[in-house]
Task: inverse folding
């Protein structure tokens, strides 16, 4: 009787263990299936969201080409929202917005005029300034390889306070009366640009290229101009109080009547500069 009882008990134990193992296998299988389902659902959601972004992107770009101002403005702000929702698209959007400005506000052909004739104080068109505002308040760390390319544009009176413009392309542009206070223009290319009476207090122009640029009467108080290249540029009457011009290149620059009180010209190259 004892032997039969032991055999029956062992059989029950085996049955119990087999049941436990089967339950574990079923649980693992269920978890694996759920994981696959979640992954599939996540991928479907991602694709759906990407499809929505693509649709929004296409619609916004179409709006930029409208003849109606309010529709163009809607397109500008729609692209800004996409930049925030989909940072991977920011570089492309920056390039599109810059192309819009280049198309809408090309620099006016130079016309013969007496020296020191003051330009009319004006502002960019409403939609152009809207684009500039969007560019000024974007988080530039998501730009990827894109740079702000506004070469040969008419940005007279533009408001770009605090704008992230590192390595921006602004050569040949008219930035007269524009406001770039506190802007980051390090490594920016401004050769041949007009910055007449442009506001640049506390702006960062470190390593900027300003060859033959016209900065007559520009406000550069406390600006960082370290290693900036002003070769053959005009700084006539420019306000450079407490500006940092350490190792700046001022070869043949016209600094007639420039205000330099407190400016740091340590190791600056003033070869041939007119003062």
Result:
């Amino acid at each position: 009787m004892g032997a039969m009882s032991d055999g029956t008990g062992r059989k029950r134990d085996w049955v119990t263990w087999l049941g436990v193992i089967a339950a574990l296998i079923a649980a693992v299988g269920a978890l694996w299936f759920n994981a696959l389902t979640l992954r599939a659902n996540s991928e479907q959601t991602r694709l759906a969201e990407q499809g929505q972004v693509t649709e929004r992107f296409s619609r916004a770009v179409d709006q930029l080409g409208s003849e109606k101002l309010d529709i163009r403005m809607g397109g500008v702000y729609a692209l800004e929202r996409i930049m925030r929702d989909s940072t991977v698209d920011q570089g492309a959007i920056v390039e599109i917005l810059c192309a819009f400005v280049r198309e809408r506000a090309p620099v006016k052909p130079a016309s013969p005029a007496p020296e020191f004739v003051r330009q009319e104080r004006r502002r960019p068109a409403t939609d152009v300034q809207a684009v500039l505002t969007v560019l000024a308040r974007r988080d530039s760390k998501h730009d990827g390889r894109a740079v702000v390319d506004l070469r040969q544009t008419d940005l007279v009176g533009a408001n770009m306070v605090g704008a992230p413009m590192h390595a921006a392309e602004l050569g040949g542009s008219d930035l007269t009366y524009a406001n770039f206070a506190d802007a980051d223009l390090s490594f920016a290319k401004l050769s041949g640009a007009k910055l007449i009476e442009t506001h640049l207090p506390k702006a960062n122009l470190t390593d900027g290229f300003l060859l033959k640029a016209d900065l007559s009467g520009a406000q550069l108080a406390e600006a960082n101009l370290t290693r900036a290249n002003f070769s053959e540029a005009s700084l006539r009457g420019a306000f450079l109080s407490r500006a940092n011009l350490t190792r700046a290149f001022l070869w043949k620059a016209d600094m007639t009547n420039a205000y330099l009180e407190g400016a740091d010209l340590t190791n600056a190259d003033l070869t041939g500069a007119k003062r």
Summary: The chain has a mean pLDDT of 88.
